[in-house]
Amino acid sequence: MDGAMALRVLLCVSLVSLLTLQAMSAPSLARGGSKGSEKRQAVDTTVDGVFIRSLKVNCKVTSRFAHYVITSQVINTANEAREVAFDVEIPKTAFISDFAITADGKAFIGDIKDKVTAWKQYRKAAISGENAGLVRASGRNMEQFTIHINIGPQSKATFQLTYEEVLKRRLTQYDIVIKVKPKQLVRHFEIDVDIFEPQGISKLDAQATFLTKELAAQTIKKSFSGKKGHVLFRPTVGQQQSCPTCSTSLLNGDFKVTYDVNRDKLCDLLVANNYFAHFFAPKNLTNMSKNIVFVIDISGSMEGQKMKQTKEALLKILGDMRPQDYFDLVLFGSHVQSWRGSLVQASEANLQAARDFVKRFSVEGATNLNGGLLQGIEILNAFQGNGPEVSNQASILIMLTDGEPTEGVTDRSQILKNVREAIRDKFPLYNLGFGHNLDFNFLEVMSKENNGWAKRIYEDHDATQQLQNFYDQVASPLLVDVELQYPRDTISALTQHRHKQYYDGSEIMVAGRIADQKLGSFKAEVQARGEGQEFKTTCLVDEEEMKKLLQERGHMLENHVERLWAYLTIQELLAKRMTVEGEEKNKLSSEILKMSLDYQFVTPLTSMTMRGMKDQEGLEPIIDKAEDGMTFVLSAAQPSPTRPSPNFQELPNRVTGVDTDPHFIIHVPQKEDALCFNINEEPGVILSLVQDPDTGFSVNGQLIGDKARSPGQHEATYFGRLGIANPATGFQLEVTPQNITLNGGEGGPVFSWRDQAVLRQDGIVVTINKKRSLVVSLDERATFEVVLHRVWRGSTVQRDFLGFYVLDSHRMSARTHGLLGQFFHPLDFEVSDIHPGSDPTRSDATMVVKNHRLTVTRGLQKDFSKDPRHGAEVSCWFVHNNGAGLIDGAHTDYIVPDIF
């Protein structure tokens, strides 16, 4: 690619679709309401010589399978190149299947391959110092896809992104949400949604959060009849204006289409091209009585807003309980306590007593998660043994926690085993993880092993509503022990067909492959238990109806049924892969990879490279699917003079850290002074710098030596490798003077020091400042900096090395330790008898510290945290003999076997 079109940055990660396309120098926009009928003036849609000629979303839904194509064309009318951004947020559950760019007369097509191969190519380039543009982010429900390109003067660029998903029915409807944010007026803007449902459409609606009722009525066209529904949103430029005389756009928010289908039959079977889809959502069933236990984390970390929102949600949920329901509450901190110790009926008197209990309890202690869960399970098990009438009730266990197990049984594998053996497949467990500072994967595996699911509750103003929305989905069980059965000799490759419970407003969906010549004998039987009775039904394929459907929808129906099966199969295999290890996990990975490549889906095991496109460093960019709670952003921008870490506050000119050979500097704020010591060890030794046993967070550093030394000369050592880990969230960051590797054990990405990047994962923010430093921020608990030291390339002695600095540690736990971590706590010392030392330029003194009397020397060390090239001198008292007497124990106590 020539200089007129160079890629700068690519990809990110969230339940909807965001559209953003803008000239990068476009001014910030003020959002305003529309007057609808006021006369609007003709405006120039060009911003800095660039205008968006068209931005169109085409969505075709066939039997819940949604196929989206987003197409946009940008024109540069300027006489010089301009940079534009194409931004799309797609559903987190969706898979990208195609992407193409045409710019300056050249076409670039996405090429999907296995992730290992793609990242090996990227790593090879990264190690050589090159930089591929990459942006990935995972938010609440969305994945964000972003690409910036330069387009030549008097030229145009066209973008086309394709992605696919299966729509899940929640609370009586299917949702298609498109988040719209073009950031400037678009000459031809269009959202076109075409829905085809063989069962017939029972309702359809569309609305936009950014439109007044009057303007919505003018611009949104919606209709449905029989099997077909259609929504069209095509505002004129005038209707896009935020005010009659404005050149800014009001298109900024959610465009949402909701619909449902007829439920005239107990179940519906769709067959096309030897694949079938079975949709089961019977109506007019009686709500079953439910037995529900809420297990609530009240440990110290829940204090404040989280506990307030939890109580608000519990009070609201108690208000929704039915008189025939039974319930109890279990609280766990350091200790476990239950409200009643057994299930009680949801009478008004019991509900009021429960409300009073919720209002009174407060946070305390650590996190005995295992004890709390086992107490809740015991209560449900005891109630289920009370008689035959209980067998026709739906039992549910719901746990809410924001932390890690720190009391009682803390080994996660043992907890999983304990919960599995206690539940014994009798009822589902739903886990709600509050915030980012927890092992959500652990909660997710536990739920999946026990017929439930896990949901992250985001720490935000609407957390109470998030909890309520979850409860609403499981509040009305209609059937239990649901099994959809098919003749074994007719089908293969069946998706999940056994479900512990079926809830009102939801839908059970099964897909599979029908053996050749077996369509005539294919049928489905459903067995379950409902309120006071057994539920049985048989579903047959209406072959004549299938022929009519194929005539109406043709190839799209055949293609969508097969891809629906592939989509469901991959999602289920990914979920199962989370719960296994070793050979079984490898086998599942191979199966997922093969299906992802066969059906051309970007999944967690595949990546898309842009064939033929090169960034400014000459690499093909990678399009990836980021993990939950994770963000990567790379750009070619030069680093700013200050650290760009989010939420970073300028700290006092005091330093705690370790640098050069390795010299440790400890700032003691109580004394407004500093202490220093060296650690003399052999190259290859790994030292513990920071270790917080309460959270598991750690920083370890490995020593390297000079390339060469003279005989008899002391060998200088430096930190050449740092490992920063937070096992609670699976976060691992390995830093060397050459590369920065995130989650390397899982095949994660590698960045070079030539990158300017921000990486986010579960509350941890890593900022790479190009060729200078790296800042790690721990969810407002602590901030650390790694400084890169480059030596003269021709040096035959020294190697490149790293410095490590503590910028903030005020919220690390009281048990934090390590060569640096032990000094995060108040330290007292007294200095006396200051006198000239053996070196007349330095003073010696007597120091009393930690009940030791030491001889110390006043000296100077260098702080490179603000000026990596020259450093700033720091005056300190130097403690001899590897810090003996100052550090706890001997320095050899801090040697650890592994970087993580």
From TrEMBL:
<dbReference type="Pfam" id="PF00092">
    <property type="entry name" value="VWA"/>
</dbReference>
<keyword id="KW-0964">Secreted</keyword>
<dbReference type="GO" id="GO:0030212">
    <property type="term" value="P:hyaluronan metabolic process"/>
</dbReference>
<comment type="similarity">
    <text>Belongs to the ITIH family.</text>
</comment>
<feature type="signal peptide">
    <location>
        <begin position="1"/>
        <end position="25"/>
    </location>
</feature>
<dbReference type="GO" id="GO:0004867">
    <property type="term" value="F:serine-type endopeptidase inhibitor activity"/>
</dbReference>
<feature type="domain" description="VIT">
    <location>
        <begin position="36"/>
        <end position="165"/>
    </location>
</feature>
<keyword id="KW-0597">Phosphoprotein</keyword>
<dbReference type="InterPro" id="IPR010600">
    <property type="entry name" value="ITI_HC_C"/>
</dbReference>
<protein>
    <recommendedName>
        <fullName>Inter-alpha-trypsin inhibitor heavy chain H1</fullName>
    </recommendedName>
</protein>
<dbReference type="InterPro" id="IPR002035">
    <property type="entry name" value="VWF_A"/>
</dbReference>
<dbReference type="Pfam" id="PF08487">
    <property type="entry name" value="VIT"/>
</dbReference>
<dbReference type="InterPro" id="IPR050934">
    <property type="entry name" value="ITIH"/>
</dbReference>
<dbReference type="InterPro" id="IPR013694">
    <property type="entry name" value="VIT"/>
</dbReference>
<keyword id="KW-0646">Protease inhibitor</keyword>
<keyword id="KW-0325">Glycoprotein</keyword>
<keyword id="KW-0654">Proteoglycan</keyword>
<dbReference type="GO" id="GO:0005540">
    <property type="term" value="F:hyaluronic acid binding"/>
</dbReference>
<dbReference type="InterPro" id="IPR036465">
    <property type="entry name" value="vWFA_dom_sf"/>
</dbReference>
<dbReference type="GO" id="GO:0005576">
    <property type="term" value="C:extracellular region"/>
</dbReference>
<comment type="function">
    <text>May act as a carrier of hyaluronan in serum or as a binding protein between hyaluronan and other matrix protein, including those on cell surfaces in tissues to regulate the localization, synthesis and degradation of hyaluronan which are essential to cells undergoing biological processes.</text>
</comment>
<dbReference type="Pfam" id="PF06668">
    <property type="entry name" value="ITI_HC_C"/>
</dbReference>
<keyword id="KW-0722">Serine protease inhibitor</keyword>
<comment type="subunit">
    <text>I-alpha-I plasma protease inhibitors are assembled from one or two heavy chains (HC) and one light chain, bikunin. Inter-alpha-inhibitor (I-alpha-I) is composed of ITIH1/HC1, ITIH2/HC2 and bikunin. Interacts with TNFAIP6 (via Link and CUB domains).</text>
</comment>
<feature type="domain" description="VWFA">
    <location>
        <begin position="291"/>
        <end position="474"/>
    </location>
</feature>
<keyword id="KW-0732">Signal</keyword>
